[in-house]
Design brief:
By secondary structure, the chain is an alpha/beta fold. The protein is built from 19 helices and 18 strands. The protein binds pyridoxal-5'-phosphate (PLP) and zinc ion. Pyridoxal-5'-phosphate binds next to helix 8 and helix 12.
Length: 568
């Protein structure tokens, strides 16, 4: 059985049966309509059907404007994994950070949800040719699905889009139109082209198909979090009849350009809450770049409408929407606690912060991502360090976007060791000798020796990982003070990274012992502690340690920089 979907006009309230190619309210002409469902009826049926459906976005089809997946088009869209970011969490002192890995969609961004739902419905409605504008990823994803559907696609791209992405759009057979202009202008050109030719135009935040597709991120997060950490039950019994109990996070964080993602995700969490499946709607953190942050300016100045940025200044083309238009006002209206929203914030970070965060995420979590995705994580770091995100809160970050061909400017120089293997003739007798000699040059240096002293295995692992990923060191570990003293006497490390709070022999006692022995008195020490020090304790450390760092506050390059500076 299929459920009726209603399109409700946000301006005049008119309710009509939804149809994918009707793009305006029949009464007032407004282009802003939202889908409405019979949530009570769907809550019951959906709960009982979930067990028998695969984990992809179609498992929530009763809550989508197209309830019939087209098997010819499906490529495993949605159903991306959610997992914990343990190292990042430790670095920030926020243990409950989860990553929704949207890179694992068919074309590696969350735009796959939008493209798959939209193209499925449009194919069904008989559309054969369409137009869109894009900062890159929308075009790539729609191109893939349009190719499967046999729909001709015109993609208008701003010339800021990296050449690799443009070529990826083209390989799918899409007609690429490269426009040398800002993204906002490109949008207008594409709209005019579609109007003149009478073609379907993808309208992002004003497209019910697009907005509804993004809800599936919210559904998946709630379902996956429940599997990982269990549901959270409401205090009062008002929604006891709900057939399903899921868990919503406290925060959903995403890098934001036009705002379609948060718009849909917020609607999804709202619907789960209305069905009584979750006990809250998460706060939203929308992160932009300093050079193109119209939503951040408007949010901080408490403006209802965002002032457009005419000339965005950012290298990160994916996030170059200068004029978010009404999407911002809608988001604000739904986020403001004073209007019943769950709260949240818009914040910005610099391009450089994002590039640095690419390194952190790759080296600490094993995730390679495009700069736009790193903007979300740079925002998380900023919000956690400023205390806006609290240590005990459950945070989900949308990690979307390609692993792009990494640009030189991000990686810098000296990122590889080069080995030249001499031709085999040079070593007639034993050709392996040439290879071994070449390899020995890679490991011939004497690496600085660093002792890591901490009684928690996780903390040792984190510090080890930070040092490993930032340089070459010979690392020793000691799990308590006694061991640390013995290690110092035996190995004479070039540096010790010392925890203060350890049972029996604590960090202070280790320092006392090191200083007493002429052999170990000069080993430089960096103290890393989770403890707020009393004035007396600070006095005990004075002049005896080279650096004091607060656990959960230092980022990996700070520690690595200190280590490098001391070893120089
Ligand atoms: C599209 C996109 C964004 C911005 O998403 P909106 O919800 O449209 O603001 C951010 N990061 C990446 C990688 C994207 O592809
Ligand atoms: Zn209307």
């Amino acid at each position: 059985m299929t459920y009726q979907v209603i399109a409700e006009c946000l301006d005049c309230g008119q309710r009509t049966t939804y149809h994918p190619t009707v793009q305006a309210c029949p009464r007032c002409g407004s282009q802003w309509c939202e889908a409405r469902y019979d949530l009570n009826a769907i809550s019951q049926t959906l709960a009982s059907r979930l067990a028998n459906r695969p984990f992809d976005l179609w498992r929530y089809r009763e809550l989508l404007p197209i309830q019939k997946p087209n098997p010819v088009l499906c490529m495993g869209e949605g159903g991306t994994p959610l997992f914990r970011a343990a190292n990042l969490g430790m670095m920030l002192g926020c243990p409950n950070i989860y990553i929704k890995d949207e890179r694992q969609g068919p074309t590696n961004s969350f735009k796959d949800r939008q493209a798959s739902v939209s193209i499925t419905a449009l194919k069904d409605a008989g559309i054969t040719e369409m137009v869109l504008s894009s900062t890159g990823n929308v075009a790539i994803s729609f191109s893939a699905y349009a190719a499967r559907a046999g729909i001709k696609l015109w993609a208008f791209l701003t010339s800021l889009v990296p050449a690799e992405k443009m070529r990826e759009v083209a390989i799918y057979g899409t007609q690429v139109v490269k426009v040398t202009a800002s993204y906002d202008q490109v949008k207008q050109v594409a709209a005019e082209f579609a109007r003149q030719r009478g073609l379907y135009l993808e309208r992002g935040s004003r497209s019910i198909l697009s907005v509804e597709s993004m809800k599936t991120i919210a559904y998946e997060i709630a379902e996956e979090l429940t599997g990982l950490i269990g549901a959270r039950y409401p205090q009062t019994g008002q929604v006891e009849a709900a057939p399903q109990r899921w868990r919503a996070p406290d925060w959903y964080i995403q890098a934001v350009s036009g705002g379609l993602g948060p718009q849909g995700v917020l609607k999804g969490f709202n619907e789960l809450y209305q069905m009584g499946w979750t006990d809250r709607i998460p706060a939203i953190a929308g992160i932009q770049t300093d050079g193109c942050a119209p939503m951040v300016h408007a949010w901080k100045q408490e403006l209802e409408k965002a002032d457009p940025i005419q000339a965005p200044r950012t290298y990160i083309a994916t996030l170059s929407t200068g004029d978010p238009g009404r999407t911002y006002s809608l988001l604000r209206q739904r986020m403001l606690p004073s209007r019943g929203g769950a709260g949240g914030i818009f914040e910005s970070v610099s391009d450089e912060d994002a590039f640095r965060t690419i390194h952190i995420m790759a080296k600490m979590e094993g995730l390679s991502m495009e700069p736009a995705a790193a903007v979300a994580f740079a925002g998380l770091i900023k919000l956690a360090r400023s205390g806006i995100i609290k240590p005990d809160e459950v945070v989900v970050v949308n990690c979307t976007g390609h692993t792009m061909p990494i640009e030189k400017m991000i990686l810098g120089e000296n990122w590889s060791r080069d080995i030249v293997v001499p031709p085999a003739e040079a070593f007639k007798e034993t050709p392996e000798e040439g290879l071994l000699a070449a390899l020995s040059r890679v490991s011939s240096e004497r690496f600085p020796r660093v002792a890591i002293v901490d009684d928690t295995p996780d903390a040792r692992r984190l510090i080890r990982r930070i040092l490993q990923s930032q340089g070459d060191y010979t690392l020793y570990e000691a799990t308590d003070g006694q061991e640390a003293i013995a290690l110092a006497q035996k190995e004479h490390p070039d540096l010790m990274i010392l925890d203060l709070m350890m049972p029996q022999v604590d960090g202070f006692a280790v320092l006392d012992a090191l200083k007493k022995d002429a052999q170990t008195a000069n080993i430089p020490v960096i103290v890393v502690t989770a403890k707020e020090l009393t004035p007396a304790e600070e006095k005990r450390l004075q002049g005896r340690v080279h650096k004091l760092m607060q656990k959960g506050e230092f980022m990996n390059d700070e520690l690595a920089d200190e280590v490098r500076a001391l070893l120089r």
